[in-house]
Design a protein that fits this description.
By secondary structure, this protein is mainly alpha-helical. It is built from eight helices and no strands.
Length: 232
């Protein structure tokens, strides 16, 4: 009985080790595949959505790097190129100010698929949007260091590279959603407008809910204090 249990334990350990190895292999492949996506977006995003070439872990990594890039940009960029009150910057607030809209846009995009007959799942949309952030990371992260080596007269070079990173990422997001949902360019453009409107509606409803919740909590707290004051 003890020997059978030992064999089963060894087998389970071997299976877990194999699963971990497979996970790491898929994770590394997902990171490497990002370079194919940004250089061949149409084929890359199609395979990303329909052939499962990417991975959720790789997508999460790109999102975290995107948030880190934004925060480091505010904290470490040469003061000649950016004016940010470093002493008053809250890292969590800055990261959240990008993370929440990003997730809301993904949610709104997924919600709008019912109206536009989109084929993408929320996971597919999220992964595509995260992979679209790669040019922003690859260009803007090194430019934080480069900004401390440039003179103010070279600001045009700095600004052009930053603009390229943003335009490239926006283009990739457009192509990614087009391939994920199997839309034409015109339908994708209309779909993106509807997505932005949907995201605004979601944010409005969430803010309204928390505002009403705050008022309700304040009312009950005041009511409780009034009762306690009258009784004691």
């Amino acid at each position: 009985m003890s020997r059978t249990k030992s064999i089963k334990t060894a087998t389970d350990s071997a299976e877990r080790a194999a699963d971990r190895k497979a996970w790491w292999s898929r994770y590394r492949a997902g990171l490497k595949y990002a370079f194919h996506v940004i250089s061949h977006p149409f084929d890359g995003f199609w395979d990303l959505a329909h052939e499962n070439k990417g991975s959720l872990a790789a997508a999460n990594t790109f999102l975290v790097l995107f948030l880190m890039t934004r925060v480091l940009k505010l904290l470490c960029t040469n003061f000649q190129f950016i004016s940010a009150p470093v002493q008053h910057i809250n890292v969590l607030e800055e990261a959240g100010s990008l993370l929440v809209p990003f997730l809301v846009l993904c949610l709104a995009n997924w919600a709008m698929t019912t109206l536009f007959d989109g084929k993408g799942r929320f996971k597919d949309i999220y992964i595509a949007m995260c992979f679209a952030l790669v040019p922003y990371i690859l260009i803007q992260l090194p430019m934080i260091l480069v900004s401390n080596m440039l003179a103010f007269d070279e600001a045009s070079f700095y600004s052009v590279l930053l603009a390229i990173s943003v335009i490239w990422s926006v283009f990739l997001a457009f192509v990614g959603l087009m391939e994920v949902h199997d839309y034409s360019p015109a339908k994708t453009f209309i779909f993106l407008i509807a997505t932005v409107v949907g995201a605004c509606v979601i944010l409005f409803l969430v803010l309204t809910f928390f505002s009403l919740l705050s008022d309700a909590i304040g009312y009950f707290v005041t009511f409780y204090r009034e009762i306690v004051y009258r009784l004691y």
